[in-house]
């Protein structure tokens, strides 16, 4: 078992074996939908760095399914009309994020129910599970993800998706605070930019769980190759 400590790969001791028990693990894939990944000027919350990881995320999910590890796809879905956000209590990111990245012309369409922006870009298999009540930055708020994980008998979660410095970071902290063993797949997440991505990975590795490459995670599970 290997993990990144201060950005450097190191071998872990036996205390971390429970983090890699496939019989008690679920994969959580966050917000890999068109609202972030569409290569279009009207994409409501573009995350262009994330597009490159879609094939490797799909490959990792296939390995997880083959070993009986549940794959849970989480996406933000806001009610039509904007009461959950745009016309209700506006999420803070809508105000502060553009200060750093510039105006986002179609931001009000982000995650609106029934739009094409909610369509997953990653492959969703028939037996995969979907959580789509995410309305803020954490996959756990105000969703039933924790309820689902506990009913699956989950003790460890492997997180992938976007953005490393935002929704992935929030999910990792919430999962840890709820008592789960947290593993973040380093090569299956991308951030706003390389600097923030690296900082978020170091923060998660220091405070909430394990940051490891998907190949090492799959090998620890007992996947072939």
Structure report:
With 225 residues, the protein is of the alpha/beta class. The protein has one domain (17-221): Isochorismatase-like (Rossmann fold, 3-Layer(aba) Sandwich), CATH 3.40.50.850. The chain is built from 7 helices and 8 strands, in the order E-E-E-H-H-E-H-E-H-E-H-E-H-E-H. The strands form 2 sheets. The protein has a 6-stranded parallel β-sheet, with helices on both faces. Strands 1-2 form a two-stranded antiparallel ribbon. A hairpin with a 2-residue loop joins strand 1 and strand 2 (8-11). Helix 5 runs parallel beside helix 6 (194-207).
Quick overview:
This protein has 225 residues and is α/β, with parallel strands linked by helices.
How would you describe this structure in keywords?
alpha/beta, 225 residues, 21% strand, Rossmann fold, 6-stranded parallel sheet, two-stranded antiparallel ribbon
The residue-averaged pLDDT reads: 96
Strand order of the largest sheet: 5-4-3-6-7-8
Helix content: 25-40%
Low-confidence segments: none
CATH architecture label name? 3-Layer(aba) Sandwich
Beginning-to-end CA distance, first to last residue: 15 Å
Number of strands: 8
Individual helix count = 7
Give a quick account of the main beta sheet: strands, pairing sense, barrel closure.
6 strands, parallel
Structural class: alpha/beta
From the alpha carbons, calculate the radius of gyration and give it in angstroms. Answer: 17 Å
CATH superfamily: Isochorismatase-like
Strand proportion, as a percent range, falls in 15-25%
- The CATH first-level class comes to Alpha Beta
Note the overall shape.
globular
- What's the helix-strand series? EEEHHEHEHEHEHEH
Number of domains: 1
């Amino acid at each position: 078992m290997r993990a990144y400590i201060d950005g450097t790969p190191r071998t872990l001791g036996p205390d971390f074996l429970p983090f890699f028990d496939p019989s008690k693990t679920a994969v959580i894939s966050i917000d890999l939908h068109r609202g972030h990944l569409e290569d279009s000027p009207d994409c409501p919350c573009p995350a262009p760095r994330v597009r490159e990881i879609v094939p490797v995320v799909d490959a990792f999910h296939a390995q997880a399914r083959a070993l009986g590890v549940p794959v849970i796809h989480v996406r933000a879905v806001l009610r039509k009309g904007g009461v959950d956000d745009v016309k209700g209590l506006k999420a803070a990111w809508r105000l502060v994020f553009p200060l750093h990245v510039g105006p986002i012309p179609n931001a009000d369409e982000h995650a609106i129910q029934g739009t094409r922006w909610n369509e997953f870009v990653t492959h969703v298999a028939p037996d995969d599970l979907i959580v789509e009540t995410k309305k803020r930055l954490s996959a756990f708020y105000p969703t039933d993800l924790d309820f689902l994980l506990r009913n699956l008998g989950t003790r460890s979660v492997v997180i992938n998706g976007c953005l490393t410095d935002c929704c992935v970071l929030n999910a990792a902290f919430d999962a840890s605070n709820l008592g789960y063993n947290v593993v973040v797949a380093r090569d299956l997440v991308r951030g706003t930019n390389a600097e923030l991505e690296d900082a978020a990975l170091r923060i998660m590795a220091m405070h909430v769980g394990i940051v490891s490459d998907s190949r090492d995670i799959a090998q620890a599970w007992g996947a072939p190759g």
